[in-house]
Amino acid sequence: xxxxxxxxxxxxxxxxxxxxPLAVRMRPRGVDDVLGQDHLLTPGSPLRRLIDAHSGDSxxxxxxxxxxxxxxxxxxxxxxxxxxxxxxxxxxxxSAGVKDLRAVISEARRHxxxxxxxxxxxxxxxxxFSKTQQDALLPAVENRWVILVAATTENPSFSIVTPLLSxxxxxxxxxxxxxxxxxxxxxxxADERGLAGKYSLLPESKDMIVRLAGSDARRSLTVLEAAxxxxxARQDTAITVEDVSEAIDVAAMSYDRDGDAHYDVISAFIxxxxxxxxxxxxxxxxxxLEAGEDPRxxxxxxxxxxxxxxxxxxxxxxxxxxxxxxxxxxVGMPEARxxxxxxxxHLATAPKSNAAYNxxxxxxxxxxxxxxxxxxxxxRDGSVWASRQTGAGEGYRYAxxxxxxxxxxxxxxxxxxxxxxxxxxxxxxxxxxxxRLAKYRSIVDGEQ
Length: 448
What we know:
This protein has helices at residues 22-25, 46-52, 73-81, 98-115, 131-135, 138-142, 156-159, 162-166, 178-190, 203-213, 217-233, 241-247, 250-253, 260-274, 278-290, 295-310, 316-331, 336-349, 355-368, 385-388, 430-444, and strands at 62-66, 87-92, 119-124, 147-152, 169-172, 200-201, 238-239. Helix content is 48%, strand content 7%. Strands 2-3-4-1-5 form a five-stranded parallel β-sheet, with helices on both faces. Strands 6-7 form a two-stranded parallel ribbon. The protein has 21 helices and seven strands. The longest helix is centred in the first third of the chain and has 18 residues, at 98-115. It has 448 residues and is α/β, with parallel strands linked by helices. Strand 2 (87-92), helix 4 (98-115) and strand 3 (119-124) form a beta-alpha-beta unit.
């Protein structure tokens, strides 16, 4: 747990100790120093209002920052805390428990009552909090006892409980582009807080660091600092490509479960399964597991792939993926590797169809576009007396009373009559659905 007014800390939350890591010393002190997140910091935006707090409008009381590591989530929380006399408290979801949360919230309430000063509670990796821990935050957010800034690298829709999501503004941070990382490196070389102009970064060395760092600002500065130390050790001032190579173990950076390569490897993994290349899929699975990736994360992605890419071409694929996820949670590593491998083989070698995926996307697109319409009266609930007075349920045909348990009847609203969302393929089990669905549709539509 850290406070701005701790010893050795400046009001911006940047350590005054020159021995602090370069990535910490170079943390932006103002909005203008933040790179790559202009879409979140335009005047009048929720985040900008929270940072500026003009005219008594301090913006939302809870913000969830979602994005890859090294994109500025912690920095933005510091900038929010700089406004007025706000206090800053930082918790890590990896180590903090409900007891820690309640202690912070209790102190924040006391401080708010006695001095009127708000407390910014920054929770890193909030997706690692259990449902109980996340629920413990609700009263504090609801009553604005704290300004919650929660950071996550995982999709909040899957990792954050709905009550907390509904009380928060969710903001997506973009990975930094090469130009942003390059600008950051140049700033760190020249700035007094950084290398203070004592070293020069050769163009090819800068390009190499940009490639190694991906979109992660923190990683780029860590590499730069290590390279500068290597340069100093050979009593020189020009940071060369050799210095960068010697300073960092490139193999160790080929997959960082908290870094940008995390997204590249999982993307290659899923695309290999989608492309029915079981060998490539097994390679990327091994790469993730050897790097210490959470096997439960891999299992969750397999469930999504089973539904999205295999679909009804092999309905048993989702059963396999779900069973794998349950088994992995019970067994753990290293044996979980065998379970995941079995699921990967099933999914990669299964026939593929994204017809169900396309169907729900098309249906949602229509709903968002306002193509909703009125539910046909015969399909409405007629079990309540008041509803029956409007004719709800009258004329409904009970399918089981008819041959083949299917009957001619309108199901979609008038505005959408005849719309087709699901179009099965000829792959795997779905090939059996195609003729059956065509027959059903013709009977329901009254064509037979």
